[in-house]
Amino acid sequence: xxxxxxxxxxxxxxxxxxxxxxxxxxxxxxxxxxxxxxxxxxxxxxxxxxxxxxxxxxxxxxxxxxxxxxxxxxxxxxxxxxxxxxxxxxxxxxxxxxxxxxxxxxxxxxxxxxxxxxxxxxxxxxxxxxxxxxxxxxxxxxxxxxxxxxxxxxxxxxxxxxxxxxxxxxxxxxxxxxxxxxxxxxxxxxxxxxxxxxxxxxxxxxxxxxxxxxxxxxxxxxxxxxxxxxxxxxxxxxxxxxxxxxxxxxxxxxxxxxxxxxxxxxxxxxxxxxxxxxxxxxxxxxxxxxxxxxxxxxxxxxxxxxxxxxxxxxxxxxxxxxxxxxxxxxxxxxxxxxxxxxxxxxxxxxxxxxxxxxx
Amino acid sequence: xxxxxxxxxxxxxxxxxxxxxxxxxxxxxxxxxxxxxxxxxxxxxxxxxxxxxxxxxxxxxxxxxxxxxxxxxxxxxxxxxxxxxxxxxxxxxxxxxxxxxxxxxxxxxxxxxxxxxxxxxxxxxxxxxxxxxxxxxxxxxxxxxxxxxxxxxxxxxxxxxxxxxxxxxxxxxxxxxxxxxxxxxxxxxxxxxxxxxxxxxxxxxxxxxxxxxxxxxxxxxxxxxxxxxxxxxxxxxxxxxxxxxxxxxxxxxxxxxxxxxxxxxxxxxxxxxxxxxxxxxxxxxxxxxxxxxxxxxxxxxxxxxxxxxxxxxxxxxxxxxxxxxxxxxxxxxxxxxxxxxxxxxxxxxxxxxxxxxxx
Lengths: 359, 359
Prior knowledge:
Two copies of one chain form a homodimer.
Chain A: H1 7-20, E1 31-32, E2 38-43, E3 50-54, E4 61-62, E5 64-65, E6 70-75, E7 81-89, E8 92-94, E9 111-115, E10 132-140, E11 145-153, E12 167-171, H2 180-183, H3 187-196, E13 204-207, H4 218-235, E14 245-250, H5 252-262, E15 270-274, H6 281-287, H7 294-300, E16 303-309, H8 315-327, E17 333-337, H9 343-354
Parallel strand pairs in A: 12-13, 12-14, 14-15, 15-16, 16-17
Antiparallel strand pairs in A: 1-2, 2-6, 3-4, 3-7, 5-6, 7-8, 7-9, 10-11, 11-13
């Protein structure tokens, strides 16, 4: 996915952009090498110190400047995956200005670097049939506005055919956007690849925008149940029963998943929560002094999973929640794996549970 | 489209993110006020100088810092439109870290601010039926790779119906991406609004990625004719004749439009070039010592337009090209309007020509 800037086009672009307005020269960053080492570059004649931070590094590393003002550093080989990173130029943290691939988020600007494996990874663009990702608008009566969501439809999807598809409703993290699951999580490519191998059922994946600020958080639960699900069911050939609906999400979206799914087990038969953040009023209200009819819920829920990494900063509260649900006699399946509160882990959580829903 | 961060959610997010990793506090930027003035904010305790630059300003303006380290400035009312802007923090130019809306581009990182009008604008999200924007992959035999393109399908589009739609192939500027026409140019909303008013014909709009670096530029002409058009015609119910194909583009894409359209008048009956950049080998090769059969081409081309602003840095060469095409007796229609080499102008060029193609 890296877009190499050749010398010729760099000269050509330098010409046009110099005329249009003053911009830095065209340089290539990041460059991922065959041995999985990565070179990062940044242009500044005036900066005093440039550092790169990334989720493949245990600490920021310094770049060095050449005589033209191009700062660079090459980091040793890293495990193939997609990683967020950023530059710190003097006191300023920023995304890599030469990298098109930005971490879709409302509060920080980081770039992402894709280190391909020697074998294709579950999130790689592979030579398989591809589904489509469509950007759609829906009217939210709950929130009194028009909102955007993304819909993945699988390869061979026929909007007018007789097939009725199940739907996974997939929610991003706290300050992410409706694009984070495709742009960073590659949910569409993970689905393409698992479906091509027959490991996941053909399904729609609906990726809404989960933040409802300044509305109170529980309004997203209402938006999901009263606006998003009805919009999808009115516009796509889908199964309109709980056995055709799954809800999943990461971090704040993982907490929303528990709130939405476990208070509506008649509507969602599959609930998959990834590293859930649950220190919210809504979660407290729903699950403190909670006395569920466990036998009934275990019948309704065909799958209830919670995933978390042992280095996740939420590992302890997530373990406590798993214990709490077990204590209520709910059939919760836990996936405890290595790793932190990262989108590298998040992709794996999705890849695991995509193979289990609707089966 | 602005996402307001309430005090409550700011506290909530500050909690989770402080735990996850060190991030700046949640602040709201930009804030567009009812009188169309705009407040920009940036957090830094250490910066010495923070400036905002934007296409609504004739020169950068300085922000001032409060005791908490929040820099801000309010600029006087600006004409409603969508504008790119950036911050300069000490020596570093960057996008606004608190704004989700980023100018999709490979070489610079700017943010965009949407200043709504008192009346709805042609690019506003209006209460009309909305088409869909789908992200698709196609295999480019020309370039030997899988590439992404965006396809807008109009409201009421039926992939299996009897209607055959015309297609506008719409190309971005030099360092833009396949997303720039929707993310910055709002091509989908402009089309929704004009179609709702009956001013534009229902059509597909295909937005490919026009950069082929390090391949030579003419390879994009081949990619368009031999890969993109066949992919669309194999996968969508479209008119497979020149009268059902238009090509348009901005800046470098405007030059590509002339190269693609005028060397293939049997394939594209509508050619609309916006502020074309033509200082390329391909353009020189195609149109130096060119002796077209003007009578034949004027019969084939149902519409040939070139748009440019009088303050555009390409105004002079574009005027020379218009004169050159007129000299060759081609029926070129020129739209000379106020404004510069900007996406504000670009949206207007599209809105104008969308009402003329396929009629």
